Structures are given as C-alpha cells and as structure tokens.
Amino acid sequence: MKFLTIAALTLLAATPALADSVATEQARADYHQARADAARAAIQKDNAEFDATQSQIDADSAQVQANSASADAAGTQAAADAARADADNLQAQANAATADAATAQQQASASQSDAISAQARADAAAADRAEALARAHAARDDLEGSRFP
Question: Is the CB of residue 122 less than 8 Å from the CB of residue 45?
Fold first, then answer.
C-alpha cells in the first residue's frame, strides 16, 4: 500500500497542484483515522476503568466478607474457650469460619489482582489514546500546513 502511495506521489510530483491535493487528501485521511483511533482508545480506556472499578468493588466486598468471617471465627473461638462442654462443636464452627475467611481472602486477592490488571489496561488505553491524539494533531497540522504554504 505504501509503495502504491509513493508511486502515485512520484507520478504526481510532475504536477504540483495534483500532488498538493493528494497530500492534502492523505493528511485528511490520516487525521480522520487518528481521530477514529483516539475514539476507540477512549472507549477501551472507559471500559477498562469500568472493569477496574467493578473489580475494586468486588475486592472490597470480598474483604468485608473476609473481615466478617474472621470476626466470626474469633467470636466462635472465644465461645469455644468459654464453654468447654461444647468445645468440639464450637471448634468445628471456628474451623469452618476460618476456611470461609481464607476463601474470602483468596477471592479478595483475586479481585485485587483483576483490579490491578484492569488498571494496567486502562493505562495502556490512555497511552493509546494519547498517541492517537498526537497523530491527529500532527495530521491536522499537516493539513493546515498544506493549505497555507
């Protein structure tokens, strides 16, 4: 594709007016493509930020569950110490609550990891957007420069 563009520009170089209009049209096409790229990058950034927010909400919820389960385990253990007659039953409840806390903690860790990953995608999308905007500005500058030499 670039070879054809270069060949067309070479052939049109003999006629400066035609070459100028081809360069202007190419600059316009580059400008519109860069704007479309910037819009796509903005959408990807927004989606990644939404995913990061959802993952953070999930992580917070899992952390609350982990804290609650941990508090339940501590309360159950205290009850087991206070009531030696029911110690076996209460110890089993404490072990179950601790297992729930560990599961919830694992879920919180996984959600936190998802949030970090989504933030990285958001950062990458922001960088893509910035690059696309820079290309759009350069294409606009090329377009304006070709109009007013």
Answer: yes
